[in-house]
Specification:
Chain lengths: ~475, ~475
């Protein structure tokens, strides 16, 4: 046993001993009703920020409750005495929580945290924010606290950024990063707001689909027409729109827009193999939403359809008379909202252009076609060969005694986009939440094992990061 | 010159002499603001009914203002002394008018009728109801009055029914016909609420398309889904609906539903030939609604597409998010309203069934499909060989010195449906309105020549009807 390993063992033991105190801190944190979307809870948001800053100070950080145009950020700084020139990581979490309506559906008060028995998960921590994201972010602070208590130091340089507006669309984030970016920037960001694979298996979220969207507005006749007086010769824009949108897909569920799949990087083969080997409950996933089979590209597995294949969705359509009863109108206009989930290799601008060009070509010359609100952000595929990725994988494997699943994520995560585009910072997404945590819903919970193993896995990562060479910026 | 012809000449001369008085009666009729849809004008509706009943009495009729659940009907009865066992015709018109909003767009007061010069039409009668339908219905009463003044009799038995709720959906009509049907029923109905072909060419409306409709409601996922979390494997019901609705048509604009065109009677060849020979302004008709070419079945002429070919129209479609901005939702549901213009030979029930069966077959088993509000009424093609049809054609030809156009009508006419289905009565549709009469719009007018020739043509028809054998019921 070398000395670094010895230190880690002492840190892990400290975490185990201090478990009761750590839970007390989490319970106190949950008790502060920091609902960011409701202005009535502004005071509570500030209180939660102050409490988190206090926890950071207790862990040896220099902490600041930093004002923004909205709820404050909490900034924590720690410069390692032993490893001042070593790696520098930014840890991100958020202290704000979702509203609790409908309150009547909670089995016990949302802000009075307690440990309860759950038939599927064993002991769980009940309470709003227990998982999203107070419990999650505290795993890191507790890991740092234990390191500091055992060694009087942290093994790497750490900045902590805790946001107070994640649940209300992060309106102040961009402005804050513009102003304080240099105080936030590190070698890479460790973000703790994501999922494990299941209650026993850890995960690293390794790719996020991007998003682009556009609205199509078409006009056929110059006014609404009576279908008796004009039906036959008059062009019906709903019919034209249906036909154009139907042409977006072929019979195998593939997008038929030329160039849509160009330059798409196939997923890392080992990751794809891992996905196919997972005992993912396809039937259960689909049954939960009322379906019996996957409806994406038929040549791809459900998880591939979800995580690493792009889509075109029609999010909304409207035209003509949509009130009660019948109206024999041939409308002048029809409209639809489209959005595209993008994967690595697809440029939002190019995809938006290709789709618009394809759609324009579907319409007769008597149709006026226009597009509005085109907008997009690219997909992210994290580099699995980065040293911090290896460290995280090993730490999770050591702690959970299972290989972590390299998850994909069908949606985008705004903070990742902000860190990558504004601060040019690589991201590492490790979290311990579960699909059944009821985040954003009544009866939110966090598995006690997630909290405990989360603290311990982050302690292992802090050790691992200190061993790696300074990560490339 | 036989004596019947001699009498007719005297009647026509009487009409010409009495033109000024006839116009005075029309102006007085227009002056009564009988807007049926607005309860504030109930008194005026009653006044208009009384005035019309008075005109009938002056023409020798026994007249009654008959109460209904809404505005009253005017009933007039004349039993011919000379031809008591001869034909019996029912004349139909309506004394109510459309509202006048927006008043600011009228060039002069809507209820102060006057003769003005119109660059395209020469002298026209300006005023609300001048065409629809006070001017039109008065042409018949004036013809009868002249007959009565000249001969002290009418050459045929005549019942007159003037409705006061045509412009507000005829809510009391069915109930009235149920109760008083035997007082209304005649050998055939002459309805004067339709168009000439152009200002110089008369017309008989010889076919009306029927109408059926149904709403389709589909459900894919059992709830609205986040397109990031589910996009790919999740079935999008808007996409499914687009595809199904697009399948309703083939590339030549024909309806692709099996059986849709079964049993369709092709139009009478001479009538079709007449249509094709008309100098109908296709380009102008289309340009008026912002189109450059007809979009119906490519193998049919525009007028055929409009009058004697059936259609499926999508009158409305809705699903997903249709507010401002973007929402990355995969909706649970999508819906559309469909209606069908039917032609002779198509049974509404069979068409509704065929379309529903066809649409059901377009959907994957994961889609729940339901239909609501199926309803329909068949098309009408009048028998061109009936004696009263010949009489009308000859009278119009004699008066206008042009062959009347046998028009189709793309929509249905509720009174025709009521007479045919409730009273099993054949209908003859002759009117003298023009497309540019601005009925239902500001600055309604009626060509003075329409009024004059209309009176004279009806005088000729009364003569012609008396010569024919008693029409078969």
């Amino acid at each position: 046993m070398n000395s670094q390993t010895d230190v880690l063992e002492r840190v892990l033991a400290k975490l185990d001993e201090g478990q009761g105190d750590a839970l007390d801190r989490l319970f106190s944190f949950i008790a502060v009703e920091s609902i960011s979307t409701d202005p009535a809870y502004s005071e509570q948001c500030l209180d939660a920020a102050k409490l988190a800053a206090g926890y950071l100070e207790q862990a040896g950080f220099e902490a600041e409750v930093a004002p923004t145009t909205g709820h404050p950020m909490v900034l924590g700084k720690y410069r390692s005495k032993a490893n001042e020139d070593g790696p520098h990581l930014l840890f991100y979490g958020h202290y704000d929580v979702q509203p609790v309506d409908p309150l009547s559906e909670w089995s016990r008060p949302p802000f009075a945290a307690e440990i309860i028995e759950d038939p599927l998960n064993g002991k769980v921590i009940h309470g709003r924010g227990s998982s999203d994201d107070k419990g999650q972010l505290l795993t890191f602070i507790e890991a740092a606290r234990a390191w500091h208590e055992v060694t009087g130091d942290l093994p790497v340089n750490v900045t902590v950024l805790l946001e107070g507006e994640e649940e209300c669309g992060s309106p102040s984030l961009d402005g804050f990063l513009e102003k304080r970016g240099q105080d936030v920037r590190a070698d890479f960001a460790l973000i703790c707001d994501t999922l494990q694979w299941d209650k026993d298996t850890p995960a690293i979220t390794s790719m996020l689909r991007g998003l682009a969207g556009v609205e199509i507005n078409i006009e056929g006749p110059n006014r609404d027409l009576h279908s008796g007086m004009y039906g036959g010769p008059a062009l019906n824009p709903i019919r034209a729109l249906n036909k154009a949108l139907a042409a977006l897909y072929d019979d195998e569920g593939r997008v038929a827009v030329p160039g849509f799949y160009d330059n798409i990087a196939e997923p890392d083969p080992s990751m794809a193999a891992q996905w196919r080997s997972l005992d993912f409950d396809d039937k259960g996933f689909l049954a939960d939403i009322g379906l019996t089979k996957p409806h994406g590209e038929s040549s791809y597995h459900l998880l591939e359809q979800l995580w690493c294949r792009p889509t075109i969705e029609i999010n909304g359509i409207w035209g003509g008379y949509i009130g009660p009863g019948q109206k024999t109108v041939i409308p002048s206009k029809a409209n639809a909202k489209l959005s595209f989930r993008l994967v690595a290799g697809q440029q939002p601008e190019a995809i938006l252009e290709a789709v618009q060009q394809f759609l324009r070509a579907q319409f007769d010359g008597d149709v006026k076609v226009s597009f509005s609100l085109p907008d997009g952000s690219p997909a992210v595929a994290f580099d699995l060969t980065k040293p911090h990725m290896d460290v995280a994988r090993q730490a999770l494997k050591d702690e959970f005694e299972r290989e972590p699943v390299m998850l994909g994520c069908g949606g985008s995560i705004p903070i990742v986009e902000a860190f990558m585009s504004q601060l040019d910072m690589d991201c590492l997404l490790v979290g311990y939440a579960l699909n059944d945590d009821c985040i954003h819903a009544p009866n939110e919970k966090y598995n006690l094992s997630s909290f405990q193993k989360g603290c311990r896995a982050f302690a292992r990562m802090l050790s691992g990061f200190s061993d790696q060479d300074k990560a490339s910026p």
